[in-house]
Amino acid sequence: MNDQQRPDRDYREVNFDGLVGPTHNYAGLALGNVASMSHGGLVANPREAALQGLAKMKALMDADYLQGVLPPQQRPDLGALRALGFTGSDERVLARAAGDAPQILRAVCSASSMWTANAATVTPSPDAPDGRVHFTPANLQSSFHRFLEPATTGRVLAAIFRDEARFAHHPALPATPAFSDEGAANHTRLAGGHGDAGVHLFVYGREAFGWGSETLPAPKRFPARQTLEASQAVARQHGLAESQTVFAQQHPEAIDAGVFHNDVIAVGNGPVLLYHEMAFLDEAGTLEALRERMRTPLIPVRIPLEAVSLEDAVSSYLFNSQLLSNPDGSMTLVVPGECQENASVWRTVQDHLLAGANPIGEVVVKDVKQSMRNGGGPACLRLRVVLGAEERGALAGRVLLDDALHGELTAWVERHYRDRLAPEDLADPALARETLVALDELSGILEIGSVYPFQLG
After folding, report:
1. Nearest to residue 332, comparing CAs of 11, 13, 8?
2. Residues with catalytic annotation?
3. Choosing a second label site near 189 at 20 to 30 A (CA), which of 122, 124, 274, 369?
4. Do 46 and 23 contact (CB within 8 A), yes or no?
5. Pairing of strands 167-169, 133-137
6. What is the pLDDT of residues 235-272, one digit of tens each?
């Protein structure tokens, strides 16, 4: 697409954060997610979790970054329980699931949709041949509790990005192991600026149709979630050419250390790629391919293993941080509080990032402990969508955060959320009823219409 076809040059990135849902709990459901597994069974605080997320959104909004909001999903998913053979009233279904299959009950109560980096893969209009913004909801088939999300995610995205002249929505890929897709958590767009033509880095853990070859090393401890075939299919859906894409394999040793998504070991923004030495199986080849395709010089910021171990990278979530562009060309890195608590990581932030030859000029620390204990840092909590001014003006609903919306959402959380939720509380029928009341009110606040199964009949 040339600039005459794309007159709108006011492109900005909008971070759409997921609101933490009322059933936020620690169930330890995510195999390969060390934080999730280690905190399974603890008592959670849904109210604190949601307020921490809103506080991060508000802080970024106050710093003049565009901030959007995505609603949580309907949980517990009683429809999923009924599909699995649990029958009777809602109370009976919950009681039987709690007694016969407590892990399934935990799965259908998961608030994992808060991590909207997994909601979809997005291609902005400057890169798409038809000049529209393209969305593909992730099928998240690698885990049952996340597999329940794509249908509602697709409805939510279609309700917000409603204008068919500007937005294109694709179906989630077939929910099979061969096309296992984890969304934007394994996708990074690199460009000179948000409105410039970009190069899309897709990171995969395995090849579905070439696995087992001696030339394709595999993780030994934890499963590789994203497939090459899924990444290629999403690129085709969005009309991306070979010259616009790079497909890189995740390092198996990183996966075994708990790097279940690429955004736990690398983050990119503009021309900057901040990554750990162990992020990619073929580090040199990945960088070379990016340099060949990018129209502006790549700025790689490499953190060596000797500075930050894989264990420290995973426990601190240094790379699961938000890297944000500022008007003066500098960048701000928003990191979780755990980075400040880890001596080697915090020293690396000072010596390699702030004192290094790169655009990162500021590091902001945010407390998202409730999310971190379930394995999601600042970057997990947001879906990045680059939009021009006209595209932002075409958004439906009331989803761009301002002071009034922040105040209403804060009051909504304080009205509806519990401050304590243990695994045994998930069988409480009152929790299910409370959640439906809360979500019905929320869809009205956000003005997105009927997106939940209980609203659709």
Report:
1. 13
2. 182, 261, 380
3. 369
4. yes
5. parallel
6. 999 999 999 999 999 999 999 999 889 999 999 999 99
